[in-house]
Amino acid sequence: MQKKKRNLIILILGLLSALGPFSIDLYLPGFPEIARDLNSTTGRVALSLSSYFVGVSLGQMIYGPLLDRFGRRTPLLVGLFIYLFASVYIVYVTSVDSLILARFIQALGGCAGMVAARALVRDLFPVSETAKIFSLLMLVIAVSPIIAPTLGGFATAQWGWHSIFIILAVLVTLNILLVYFWLPLGAPPDTTMSLKPKSIITKFWNVFKTPQFYTYTLTGSFAASGLYAYIAGSPHVFMELYGVSEKQYGWIFGIIAMGLVTASQVNTYMLKKYTSQQIVKVTLLCQVVAGALLFLGTIFHLIEMYSMIVLVFLFLSTQGFAFPNTSALSLAPFEKSAGTASALMGALQLGIGAIITALVSTLSNETPLPMTGIMFFCASVSVMILYWGNRKMKTLEQVSIS
Q1: What does pTM read for this prediction?
Q2: Residue 113 contacts residue 80 (beta carbons within 8 Å)
Q3: What 8-state DSSP symbol labels residue 245?
Q4: Using CA atoms, how far apart are residues 121 and 119, in angstroms rounded to an integer?
Q5: Which of 25, 181, 274, 302 is the most buried (most CB within 10 A)?
Q6: Domain of 261: which CATH number?
Q7: What is the pLDDT of residues 69-104, one digit of tens each?
Q8: How far apart are CA 259 and CA 359, in angstroms?
Q9: CA torsion angle for 110, 376, 148, 155 (degrees, to 10)?
């Protein structure tokens, strides 16, 4: 594959993958204004974030089989048009309940890009390169937390929160054009695949029961849920508890996201010397340490705004290593069913993320404890799953050898 064409494909896949994070991060600075405009609270508005995660989780379970059965392009374009419709509809909502529902529909469409991008990485690049490709995608994805909150804060301050969803409508239109004109088709349709519920469930189960899949998917899902806990809790913590403005919050969010960008690119160099398994193990231990410091610091009132920023920066930097490596390890055993495996991986990640964001919103009080406590919990669970899964795989290897 020519380098120029390869880079263009990675850019398009990155933009498709970034649609989800951008849809989340862009409207975070607008939470207080949305709450005022819709006569609600920021905690209630945060439930639109949970509904987005639920929609992405369920939608991926739908798109996975469709992408395998009909090929990558048609289901992808249908999903992107659903996202476009929902983005325009949100501009006209008049209640927080309508916002929550519309965000759910928006997620059902937007998640097609996430599933298709991961499946196309498996289609278009050799297995030996997938972790590096995911790291490059992470660079594009990680730009969204830097640009989105800053842009969202500026747009909200200048034109109101409705402008955020006009920006998203323009972004998805760009994605549609890039997919239609320049993205390769990927794996051909599997016309033998049945779309009957029993057959689909069986295929999902066959993917899930693969030890390497469930170990690294669940490990990565709980590690990522620490990020989602921060996303759900940070508007309340920084704008309401620490009293920063919408624009200042955007800058804080962007600075913290720089850790993700840097780590994801360091990961490409680390892969030259170390395996993905080795990197994941060290990364998650570091995440647990940062999470413990956040949690204990909050309990004993040792953390103020600047120390909070530093510790969250360290905590989230680990995602730049965890995401590409757990994703590559999860999808490595699959070739023909990459779409289904990608969908199940994403559904589990966002499903757990939806529960975590709802929990942060429900437990919200006048302290950062709900956010920091749940971040520490997620990091701890991810490490426990990793060590349990590795022991399980070693046991199975020993049994097969004997």
Answers
A1: 0.75
A2: yes
A3: -
A4: 5
A5: 25
A6: 1.20.1250.20
A7: 888 899 999 999 999 999 999 999 999 999 999 999
A8: 25
A9: 110
